[in-house]
Amino acid sequence: MSKLSFEQKRILVGTLLGDGYLYRDRYNDCYLEIKHSEKQRDYVFWMYENLSNFCPSEPKQRKDNKQWKFMTSSNKDLCFFRQSFYPDGKKIVPRDIKEILTHPLSLAVWYMDDGSLDYRPKSHYNYSLSTNSFTLEENRLLIGVLKENFGIITSVQAPLCRGVRYPELYIGVAGRDKFIETIKPYLLPCFKYKIPPFEHLKL
């Protein structure tokens, strides 16, 4: 049975903080599901190429919503991450995230998975990471880890969406330069829309 490489572990951490999901099968092994929109097709295939030794087949496109999707084979190596991120079945931020989220590749995958750019020419821009599935305490834990492990200053904001406020990590003036400097070497060209236009030539 294949073992996870160092790079695969870093990718896994990033996508589990984002949109990736680990399932447990009837034999108590675990498998990863990756799915994204047509706009992120290149990203799905990049993920597949990096995890292909665990994958029984290439990504397929759904006919109804046009999403691209693939799943890994069940593998006991993935169960460590399942136990860390889903101890009671619901995704959480592990208490030892400081020891897990340590590499810029993980941060870049997290942003490619579930990050966004708010760019207004001549006036303002910031980055954010969608963390609305995590508690306020977990968001604060992530703030501390990003500051300590990467030197990136963030804060929690809760913008209003359809009458409900959802927390997200906000990366403004104090942290945005360090953030993009950290993740840019790993960003795929298909994510140019997630960085300001003046950064495109540097990607």
TrEMBL record:
It comes from the Bacteria. Residues 10-157 form the Homing endonuclease LAGLIDADG domain. One of its GO terms (molecular function) is endonuclease activity. One of its GO terms (biological process) is photosystem I assembly. This is Homing endonuclease LAGLIDADG domain-containing protein. It comes from Candidatus Yanofskybacteria bacterium RIFCSPHIGHO2_12_FULL_45_19b. The lineage of its organism: Bacteria, Candidatus Yanofskyibacteriota.
